């Protein structure tokens, strides 16, 4: 039976009752019970809200009669803990607090959200709590929270399990909008936000709160609240919880097995689908690089929803909801020259060095804007991931594409108004040399000369890929650094199995020569000879490719890029 893909689902009961595909992470519930006041940070759209909802339904005393319905098919349903359906649930989602331009308005919105929720809980748990004191809507949220927790303790009823999703959501808005004074006010000693966390801390001390689970993106707000909430246990960099959010390759393989069976997909397409999703959505290492890389779950579900609907590889592979605005990068780096420097460095090598000492569970706002912390800040935002003990890297092609878009945007490079004719020409008559020539004339020549003192072959490879993927995604997918026994290829054009260029595979190797290096060659660009070692290198890739795809129509190209002087394309 065909099931629906759970894209955009944040309610656990909805996912189960609608019988959507489900990757079971419930074993982590029992592991979390051993942790006091866990704090778990992950980038946006990594499944945090759905996980919070799962905890709510597992621990909510009101859902006791629904335990079998929601969890019988899960690991935790077969191995329930003593605490299931034992608590009153206070589930806070601070993304629902609307940010404003004054501390008074922000406090009003926060107070309104929290007080309305507490009053609603008074009613929904009336059978458990019995009579409860009134909570005046004009009281500060911390005051009403304290009254509510005191009443719970005095009633002798079940304690509260607190879940805070998006703890830093509205606070992060002040960072990106350059409203540092509001950030300072909201994290100051006497702020309403600090007072709220003080009451939560006190609730843990009195026992009215059984435990408290917090999720968010950045560690800076919780660090700046330390004196008010210094009881949290950070799990973000704990290897035991690295795979709690995000999907491993094994989990994705099992999911695809079900989808191919349920939807009657042609199994011969599975290899190309695997290739696409691994290159586009996999690659995240949050703790160890020798452990399984993780897929971004929302990105993967975005793809699978379209794939199941259309039975073909979708044109658009990047979920626009994932794209963090360039304003974040600009804000982190603070100065335009710093923004350009870090984007150029990443575009050149796909990596950036970092100091392991700085990759810690929490740091404050002043450190967030320190140049030494730039890579760490981008790591927490999900733009970079661990490559090894010394470098962070862009995790996949989706992030490479997004960073190239940032670079184009920053340098005001036009990628939209002049390319339709050249792309149509390529589809009508697939000629790589003509395509690259048009890319050079229309795209590369927009860059100021100073850029070419900093570029390398990765610059040409990545920008060429990004431009082609904008216009040719109906017909092609692309690989970058695909592994073969003989090494990693630079760039590959792969015809989609359901389109006119099916079985086409072009392997392209890029080589870069600076203007200075070219001047020493004492020849014209059109007379530059192809080096024998470059021929051997790309032919080695072809051997591996032919063994893997014997039916493929393979062509091999080497492209020499010479500063901003020009290029030469060789077909091997």
Describe, in plain words, how this protein is organized in 3D.
The protein is an alpha/beta fold. The chain folds into four domains: 218 residues, Rossmann fold (3-Layer(aba) Sandwich); 68 residues, no CATH class; 86 residues, no CATH class; 160 residues, 3-Layer(aba) Sandwich (Trna Endonuclease, Chain: A, domain 1). The longest helix has 22 residues. The two termini are 49 Å apart. InterPro entries: AAA-ATPase-like_dom (IPR018631), PDDEXK_9 (IPR012547). This is AAA-ATPase-like domain-containing protein. Pfam families: AAA-ATPase_like, PDDEXK_9.
Mean pLDDT: 92
Distance between the termini: 49 Å
Give the tally of β-strands: 15
Return the CATH class of the largest domain. Answer: Alpha Beta
Largest sheet features: 5 strands, parallel
**Sequence of strands across the biggest β-sheet:** 2-3-4-1-5
Per the principal axes of the C-alpha atoms, what is the gross shape? globular
Portion of residues within helices: 40-55%
InterPro entries: AAA-ATPase-like_dom (IPR018631), PDDEXK_9 (IPR012547)
Organism: Methanospirillum hungatei JF-1 (strain ATCC 27890 / DSM 864 / NBRC 100397 / JF-1)
Protein name: AAA-ATPase-like domain-containing protein
């Amino acid at each position: 039976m065909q099931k629906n893909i759970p894209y955009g689902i944040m309610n656990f009961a909805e996912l189960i009752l609608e019988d959507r595909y489900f990757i079971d992470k419930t074993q982590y519930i029992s592991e979390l019970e051993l942790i006091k006041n866990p704090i778990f940070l992950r980038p946006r759209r990594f499944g945090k809200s759905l996980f919070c909802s799962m905890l709510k339904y597992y621990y909510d005393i009101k859902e006791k009669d629904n335990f079998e319905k929601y969890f019988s098919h899960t690991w935790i349903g077969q191995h329930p803990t003593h605490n299931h359906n034992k608590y009153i649930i206070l589930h806070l989602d601070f993304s629902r607090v609307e940010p404003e331009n004054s501390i008074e308005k922000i406090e009003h919105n926060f107070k309104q959200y929290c007080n309305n929720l507490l009053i609603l809980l008074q009613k929904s748990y009336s059978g458990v709590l019995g009579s409860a004191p009134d909570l005046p809507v004009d009281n500060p949220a911390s005051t009403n929270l304290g009254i509510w927790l005191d009443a719970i303790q005095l009633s002798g009823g079940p304690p509260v399990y607190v879940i805070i999703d998006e703890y830093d959501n509205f606070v992060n808005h002040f960072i990106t909008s350059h409203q540092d004074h509001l950030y300072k006010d909201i994290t100051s000693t006497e702020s309403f936000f600090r007072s709220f966390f003080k009451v939560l801390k006190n609730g843990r001390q009195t026992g009215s709160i059984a435990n408290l689970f917090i999720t968010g993106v950045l560690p800076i707000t919780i660090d700046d609240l330390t004196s008010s909430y210094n009881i949290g246990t950070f799990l973000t960099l704990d290897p035991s919880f690295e795979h709690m959010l995000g999907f491993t390759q094994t989990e994705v393989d099992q999911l695809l097995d079900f989808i191919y069976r349920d939807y009657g997909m042609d199994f011969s397409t599975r290899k190309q689908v695997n290739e696409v999703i691994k290159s586009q959505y996999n690659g995240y290492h949050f703790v160890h690089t020798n452990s399984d890389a993780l897929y971004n779950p929302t990105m993967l579900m975005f793809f699978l929803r379209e794939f199941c609907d259309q039975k073909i590889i979708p044109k658009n592979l990047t979920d626009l909801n994932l794209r963090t605005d360039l304003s974040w990068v600009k804000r982190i780096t603070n100065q335009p020259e710093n923004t350009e420097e870090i984007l150029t460095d990443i575009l050149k090598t796909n990596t950036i060095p970092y100091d392991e000492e700085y990759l810690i569970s929490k740091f404050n706002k002043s450190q967030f804007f320190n140049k030494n912390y730039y890579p760490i800040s981008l790591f927490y935002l999900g733009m970079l991931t661990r490559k090894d003990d010394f470098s962070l890297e862009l995790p996949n092609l989706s992030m490479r594409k997004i960073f190239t878009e940032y670079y184009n945007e920053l340098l005001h490079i036009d990628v939209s108004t002049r390319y339709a004719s050249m792309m149509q020409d390529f589809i009508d008559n697939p000629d790589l040399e003509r395509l690259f020539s048009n890319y050079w004339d229309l795209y590369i020549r927009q860059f100021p000369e100073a850029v070419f003192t900093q570029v390398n072959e990765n610059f040409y490879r990545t920008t060429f890929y990004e431009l082609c993927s904008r216009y040719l995604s109906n017909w092609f997918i692309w690989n970058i650094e695909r592994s073969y026994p003989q090494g990693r290829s630079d760039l590959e054009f792969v015809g989609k199995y359901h389109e006119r260029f099916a079985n086409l595979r072009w392997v392209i190797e890029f080589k870069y020569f600076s203007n200075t290096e070219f001047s020493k060659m004492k020849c014209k660009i059109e007379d530059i000879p192809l080096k024998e070692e470059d021929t051997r290198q790309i032919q080695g890739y072809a051997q591996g490719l032919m063994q893997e795809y014997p039916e493929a129509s393979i062509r091999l190209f080497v492209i020499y890029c010479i500063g901003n002087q020009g290029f030469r394309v060789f077909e091997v």
